[in-house]
Amino acid sequence: MSDKTATLNVDGSSLELPVLPGSVGPEVVDIRKMYGQTGKFTYDPGFTSTASCQSAITYIDGGEGILLHRGYPIDQLAEKANFLEVAYLLLHGDLPKQEELDEFTQTITYHTMVHEQLAQFFRGFRRDAHPMAVMTGVVGALSAFYHDSTDITDPQQRLIASHRLIAKMPTIAAMAYKYSVGQPFVYPQNDLSYTGNFLRMTFSVPAEPYEVNPVIERAMDRIFILHADHEQNASTSTVRLAGSSGANPFACIAAGIACLWGPAHGGANEAALNMLREIGDEKNVKAYVDRAKDKNDPFRLMGFGHRVYKNYDPRAKVMQQTAEEVLKELNISDPVLDVARQLEQIALNDDYFIEKKLYPNVDFYSGIILNAIGFPTEMFTALFALARTTGWVAQWNEMISDPEQKIGRPRQLYVGATQRDYVPVGER
Ligand code: ACO
Fold first, then answer.
1. pLDDT tens digit string along 138-160?
2. How many whole angstroms from 306 Cα to the centroid of ligand 1?
3. Residue 294 Cα distances to 300, 302, 350, angstroms
4. SS3 content of the chain, % helix, strand, coil (to 5)
5. In 142-301, where does DSSP find H-type helix?
6. How far apart are CA 164 and CA 235, in angstroms?
7. Does the annotation count 363 as an active-site position?
8. DSSP sequence for 337-386
9. 304-330 burial by CB neighbour count: b if 16+ within 10 A, else e?
């Protein structure tokens, strides 16, 4: 704790506000007593200058393009760890020792099956429902199936709910896919890895043997790692806000899924691939870059720009490399990858993008990889939700255990009508 303060002068009097240091990164001005002492709120739509909590999970330096989970750089984790190792790290704070990883892997593996009645729940959806609509509904419904892990005051129940969510998400995402294509649900198989199991549940059919391709398994695992957590983004903040009222974890994660669905957030990889397909050919790239720069055209380059990164998103670099590896393994030459490379080159050298510090984000290349693996675009955000569930449960647990936690209740700058008297309907 430092004794540094910031002085706020308001209405002729001054107020000393504590300045709190983090372990790294910008200090924060603690304004908690401001309203009580000055009768004033701060105004910050979109939380561009406001820390909503303290957290020890993920650190981002957007200017430098740094992303650390519990201190470990994302590129090291993506290269050297597997997804469950990263999940353990996010949840427990340190990388697991071998026995801890074995036990965690065993626990997650043995929670991958879902209640059999849940299959009937799926059947209530139209076959053409978006997988994110299905995921929001089904994950919210888990609280109706697993009553024994909804007491948020019990740390053991919280841990079991966290394990259940991480374990069942691949099963639910695969079921959403199978339902949409009219194929039978595939049960998990416990001798496969977390990611291998997901690929099998998604792409195998009972009529044929299925072998997991280790290059695709590794690429998919890496995609999960790259999406596992990203500090207080919109969906994570939604999970925390929902959880701050004491709502059960399944309901909170369903709220996070709903938020993630938006095209400015998790829906961007779907939008980015659609955009690259629409551009279609390298010769059209310049015209689209010009549209993105035109103030009178609402078009934006999807997969470009980020609220926090004002430098190359470190996840985008790993994603680009993975895209090259997967396309090579599958022997696919996708013109969309050429369009992406060309678009990136033109945009990175264009004054508009340089001045606004707009770089490719994680979503720019991920759609190309997922498409090559065989996922339809509607599944992209569902895969993001699967991976981000790990971050969400880690953040949710951290919030519940934080003694400073309060129900999230932002204030507002009211600009509506002042008090007026009711007028009977015939006299208006
Ligand atoms: N293409 C063209 N111009 C852009 C783009 C883009 N992709 N992104 C931002 N800009 C411009 C804006 O027009 C604005 O210009 P102005 O200052 O002249 O008005 C300026 O850059 C700042 O943009 P904001 O929207 O104010 O920045 P903000 O931080 O609110 O938005 C966001 C970040 C939503 C990600 C934005 O860059 C965007 O819409 N990108 C495309 C969607 C996308 O890829 N989203 C994925 C984000 S990553 C994730 O969720 C996993």
1. 999 999 999 999 999 999 999 99
2. 6
3. 9, 15, 13
4. 55, 5, 40
5. 155-181, 194-203, 214-226, 234-244, 249-260, 268-279, 285-293
6. 19
7. yes
8. HHHHHHHHHHHHTSHHHHHTT--B-THHHHHHHHHHHT--GGGHHHHHHH
9. bbbebbbebbbbbbbbbbbbebbbebb
378 CA → ligand 1 middle, Å = 22
pLDDT value, residue 337: 85
Return the SS3 of 61.
strand
* Rounded distance between C-alpha atoms, residue 152 and residue 150, angstroms: 6
Query: Which residues are 13's β-sheet partners?
Result: 10
Identify the helix (H) or strand (E) that includes residue 16: strand 13-20
Give the model's confidence band at 266: pLDDT under 50 very low, under 70 low, under 90 confident, else very high.
Answer: confident
pLDDT category of residue 362 using cuts at 50, 70 and 90: confident
Active site residue 265: no
Looking at ligand 1, which residue's alpha carbon is closest to its atom 14?
A: 356
- CA 210 from chain centre, in angstroms, equals 30
pLDDT, tens digit, 9 for 90 and up, residues 206-248: 999 999 999 999 999 999 999 999 999 999 999 999 999 999 9
pTM of the full structure: 0.92
Distance 27 CA to ligand 1 centre (A): 25
Which residue out of 229, 300, 353 has the highest number of ligand 1 atoms within 8 Å of its CB and is therefore the one to mutate? 300
3-state secondary structure of 58: strand
